[in-house]
Design a protein that fits this description.
Elements: H1 2-15, E1 25-29, H2 32-42, E2 46-50, H3 65-73, E3 76-79, H4 88-93, E4 100-102, E5 108-109, H5 118-128, E6 131-132, H6 168-185, H7 190-215, E7 224-229, H8 233-239, E8 242-248, H9 259-272, E9 276-280, H10 286-296, E10 299-303, H11 318-333
Length: 334
């Protein structure tokens, strides 16, 4: 009898189909910030890697031959768009049928080179935007042309600012777009991706409320920002700061300011009573240090801009990144 039952059990095991597990989506992102959002949306259903490493400057990134294979092997390549990834065109051309998703589509684009006065924005908010990315904003490649300008030549101030992620509301749009991209590529798990995105958007909303409370502790007349290059415009627009100048008048760190630009900035720093210049962890900020010293020995404070820190650093996730930068700014301006 026992042998008979054992035989039935063995037959059942043999003929019962085993459900094959779907391999995780292979997702390649251009930045570590995008990678972190993708991991939150995809969870264990995706494997995510970033082209640009932690603590790096995306504007100075140069692909290596191995990156061609990384792009070709990916199911999806997630990019910021608006011309940020100038290095990507060659990689895409060498990878057949790679699916590239611009996760910033649907975001209202700010122009590069405009002073961001919060009071003026409240009166002319609709006029300040260049349009919606993916709808009517034309941005691709414009800001990268500035990196080739020579000292003393006129800067192009009509380009789009691609640093969308410094406003958490824009990252909420990212999460939704990433969820839809994953759902299209893996329809069986579409609802999981969408639920993950909604949960992460709730975390972003909670952090945004926390940071607004923190910003409210700083008097409005002290919310004056000077940066090494223009990367905080969306942060300033959302939280009510005024960007009065940049050391490198460009959305890329590769441009070179003219002596006239530097002299004008020093005068602006003195006239506005600027308390600190905010540089990037990924950039030494040598010129920022010179401007700060000449303007009155003010502080140069390092922030994370285009990339997260390493996993043991203070900005290992996007939520940590935004909290760290906001707290550093408030501390410096207080």
């Amino acid at each position: 009898m026992k042998r008979y039952l054992l035989l039935i059990l063995l037959v059942f095991v043999v003929i019962t189909p085993v459900q094959a597990q779907t391999p995780p989506l292979q997702v390649l992102t251009t930045t570590t910030i995008i990678a972190d959002i993708a991991k939150n949306v995809g969870g264990e259903l995706v494997e995510v890697t970033s082209l640009v490493p932690a603590d790096a400057d995306i504007h100075a990134f140069q692909p290596v031959p191995q990156d061609v294979a990384r792009v070709a092997d990916a199911d999806l390549v997630l990019i910021n768009g608006a011309g940020l990834e100038g290095f990507l065109s060659g990689l895409i051309e060498n990878a057949a049928e790679v699916q590239v998703v611009t996760i910033s589509d649907g975001i209202e684009v700010l122009p590069f080179g405009e002073e961001h006065d919060h009071e003026a924005e409240e009166d002319h908010a609709d006029d300040e935007h260049l349009g919606v990315l993916g709808v009517d904003a034309e941005c691709e490649g414009e800001e990268h042309e500035e990196a080739e300008e020579h000292e003393g030549e006129e800067h192009d101030h009509g380009a789009c600012d691609p640093h969308f992620w410094t406003d958490p509301n824009n990252v909420m749009i990212w999460a939704g777009n990433i969820a839809e991209a994953f759902a299209t590529a893996d329809s069986a798990n579409a609802e999981i991706y969408r639920a993950n995105a909604e949960a992460y958007q709730s975390e972003l909303a909670a952090l945004d409320a926390e940071l607004k409370t923190l910003v409210d502790t700083l008097p409005e007349n002290q919310r004056i920002i000077v940066t090494n290059h223009e990367f905080l415009a969306y942060f300033a627009h959302h939280y009510g700061f005024e960007v009065v100048g940049t050391v490198i008048p460009s959305v890329t760190t590769l441009a070179e300011p003219s002596p006239q630009d530097v002299a004008a900035l020093i005068e602006t720093v003195r006239a506005e009573g600027v308390q600190a210049i905010f540089a990037e962890v990924s950039d030494p900020g040598r010129l920022a240090q010179i401007v700060a010293a000449d303007a009155g020995d003010i502080a140069v404070v390092s922030l994370y801009s285009d990339s997260l820190s390493s996993t043991d650093g203070p900005a290992a996730t996007y939520l940590d990144y935004l909290r760290y930068n906001t707290e550093a700014i408030i501390t410096a301006l207080s």
